Amino acid sequence: MRAALWLLALFGIAAGVALFAGSNEGTITVFWPPWRIDLSLNLVLMLALGLFVVLHLALRGLGALLSLPAQARQWRMQQKERALHTALLESIVQLLAGRFSRAAKAAQSALAQERTLEALNARLPMAAQVRTLSHLLAAESANSLQDKPSRDAHLQHALSESGEGSVSPETREGVQLRAAYWALQDRDAQAALARLQELPHGAQRRTLALRLWLKAARLDGRTLQALETARLLAKHRAFSQTAAHSIIRGLATDLLSEAHDPSQLQHAWSELDAMEREMPEVALHAAQRQVLLRGDPAVARNWLLPIWDRMTAHPDRLSDSLRVKLTRALEVGLDSVDAEWLARIETAQRNDPRDPNLQYLAGMACLKRQLWGKAQQLLTQAGLGLKDPGLHRQAWQALARLAEERGDPEQAAMAWKRAAESDSGR
């Protein structure tokens, strides 16, 4: 359609020119003494048009001739710039492929090309960012090659280049994050934390930065900070639910282990949130630390109450090993147990009379209260059903002492024998 319109326009112009030139009888007389030259107006117009075209083409040709040196220089700059970007891409590809020596050479080549362009006063777009990335790639390659002096040198260049205003903030943040990661690889937690603290507040809450902060805090022994970071990562779903549960549980346990007296343990317990306090492993560890530090057993039992309620309400939700640990933790404080806890133990054993752990705990409670007959009955049942060697041994040892107090040496000998069988690897 466009070609047809152009063709119609050309026909129209040709028809207009033909009409004008065909009826144009004007002449132009040029006096050049002693001559007189008469020229047709049409011829003069054609000569003028031709002269304009010739002059226009001549000027364009002259301009093109004079611009050849500039075009040649621009072409050379483009070739060098392409070589720079090619070297930069080659460094990235070789680094991803694990060819670290080649990646370092390609990054050095990119830096050399950039210096050549700078010497030629060529304005390379985002030159500072290109230099920063080149130094970062060279540092990454040197780190993979265990060349720490070269890595640190390139890192300092990258940090100085990324400090310029023309470099995007994300580029500098990326350099700082890599520096923190390398510090963690060197087991230098202080340097890693210092790098992370240099980040803007928003960048510090990114998932990658939080992961690095978690590792650095754990390496530096800052358990509380590591726990707070793990909570943020779990909230951001940076881990699977199982992994987040395991990490938080381990950090909470470490935080409790750092306490060296009951007051410190109480303070550490207060730093935990409700979900962490209801973790069976955490509550059991806290109770064990309370007993080890000679704290108040009533406080330990209070910490264990949610776990006890869970075990009695849903026995299948607590593993056998945790049930054994809970039994051991409660057994330690039976000397000072109050009537309320005794009622809980008795009610739980009555509701689940076949549970050997509850039989053992109730039997030991009766033993502490000098209820010999009931203690013997419960401990005998527990001794026949307990699978944990330690509880099995203690149950039969208690029965052996009861038999000795009753003056029944045969029963005592049998009980001591059963206890010895537990020691031999029941």
UniProtKB/TrEMBL annotation:
Keywords: Cell inner membrane, Cell membrane, Membrane, Porphyrin biosynthesis, Transmembrane, Transmembrane helix. Residues 145-171 are annotated as: Disordered. It holds the Pfam family HemY_N. Residues 26-122 form the HemY N-terminal domain. Its main location: membrane. It comes from the Bacteria. InterPro entries: Heme_biosyn_assoc_TPR_pro (IPR005254), HemY_N (IPR010817), TPR-like_helical_dom_sf (IPR011990). Pathway: Porphyrin-containing compound metabolism; protoheme biosynthesis. It is a multi-pass membrane protein. It is found in: Cell inner membrane. The chain crosses the membrane at residues 44-68. Involved in a late step of protoheme IX synthesis. This is Heme biosynthesis HemY N-terminal domain-containing protein. It comes from Variovorax dokdonensis. The lineage of its organism: Bacteria, Pseudomonadati, Pseudomonadota, Betaproteobacteria, Burkholderiales.
